[in-house]
Amino acid sequence: MAGRTYGQYCGLARAMELVGERWAMLVVRDLLLGPKRFSELRRGLPRIPTNILSARLRDLEQAAIVQRRILPRPAAAVVYELTSYGKDLKPIVLTLGAWGARSLDDPQPNDSVMADALVLALQATFHPEAARGLEATYELHVGPVVLHARIADGTLDAAEGSLPGADLVLDAGRALKALMAGEISPSEALESGMVRITGKPDLLARFGDLFRLAPAPSRRPS
Amino acid sequence: MAGRTYGQYCGLARAMELVGERWAMLVVRDLLLGPKRFSELRRGLPRIPTNILSARLRDLEQAAIVQRRILPRPAAAVVYELTSYGKDLKPIVLTLGAWGARSLDDPQPNDSVMADALVLALQATFHPEAARGLEATYELHVGPVVLHARIADGTLDAAEGSLPGADLVLDAGRALKALMAGEISPSEALESGMVRITGKPDLLARFGDLFRLAPAPSRRPS
DNA sequence: CTGGATCCCTCACGATACTG
DNA sequence: CAGTATCGTGAGGGATCCAG
Fold first, then answer.
1. How does pLDDT run across A161-172, given as a tens digit for each residue?
2. Which CATH number fits the domain B11-88, given the four candidates 2.60.40.1120, 1.10.10.10, 1.20.1740.10, 3.30.870.10?
3. Strand C footprint at Cβ < 7 Å?
């Protein structure tokens, strides 16, 4: 006993006991976008063993972070959703995700690109001040994933799926991150063929301002 | 290989690969208050095996989160300090700590109470607006630990150790959290004997406003 | 004394198979 | 579809030992 606790009277230690175990944060991440069923969670976490997913859901439920709910009818299915306490993790998950994204390098061939992660990445890096007075809709293609973003006067609405009639359709392989981190300019991105667009080209220039990621960490200095 | 990665192209997954392993976050926490030597870290993390501490420091160094530095002279000792990328974790660690503190119940007899954790807890819960126009100094006693806080016009300076001449000396067993979460009123805390003070009593009332923690999660509702 | 390295043991995790 | 049962492996825990 006491094997999995840190033995400290400390909020951070407690937090890591609650959501620090492997996969737990990613389960929370997927539930941030709404209630999900067991198999939907599996789909969003392709490498998770089912017994681990079971165990995490049980732990999170016991910690009052997740809540099981029986769908009324006619479904009669079980869904998992975040409690209010669980939803309070949202700013943390977003900020932590933006921090981690900075040291993300190009995806391995085996890496999966999940729509939910990209939707949250947009939310995490969205810069409301850069969107003042702007009304625009984007459709993004990243590998096999399609998502969209509506910007209306400082607010963002992002979700999976396409958006017919979007002002700009952006196919960004994985230069998306480079664009958001300011590592390449929009014109460079276009000329090198790393991104392809259809629609209003000036919206590409604004994209990097709307969704801004801090630069990657450097090896040397403090 | 690839056993410890999540196989997702996702900032959060990357973040958990970097700081999600056991003890890693707590090492970062302790380094947030300044460079520390190996043995100082051990002292702040009483239950960590030394091989794990070694391994974590190596991992964090390789991830450009921590940096080894040789102290000039006359010490010639090794210290570990956060890089700029590591310091960027501070708001995350503080917020996550405040979140976790909400589900902290009374400390187990074996739990250690670390000064660093309390200092960061003060920083995490500090409410600058509540400190407008206030100039005050506190000395806090929590179990065997003594720390202090200086408040001057909206800013907080907290550190370990006593502060002779503090405006209010507060000995709060562990009713400290209840006070910060608004679970008990200052007068209740005094009358029940859960906290003892010497100094200006009205500063006790302000304490709960200066350092405010959200209420504990409830079991039932969403 | 600091800053680790080494050994062994245990348990949580991971892969797979199986069940209501 | 929604998990549980089984079992092997490797990371974590704890003690001890060693070099500068």
1. 999 999 999 999
2. 1.10.10.10
3. A 3-4, 21-23, 47-52, 55; B 3, 37-40, 49-51, 54, 57, 68, 77-79
Please answer whether residues A204 and A168 qualify as being in contact, where contact means their C-beta atoms are separated by less than 8 angstroms.
yes
A30-56 tens-digit pLDDT: 999 999 999 999 999 999 999 999 999
- Which residues, in sequence order, are CB contacts of B210 under 8 Å at separation 6+? B126, B127, B130, B131, B134, B151, B156
Query: Chain B residue with minimal CA distance to A107?
Result: B9
H/E element, A196: strand A196-199
The CATH class, in words, for A115-210 is: alpha beta
Q: Which segments of chain A belong to CATH 1.10.10.10?
A: 11-88
Distance from C-alpha of B209 to C-alpha of B186, rounded to nearest angstrom: 11
What's the pLDDT tens digit per position in A85-106?
Answer: 999 999 999 999 999 999 999 9
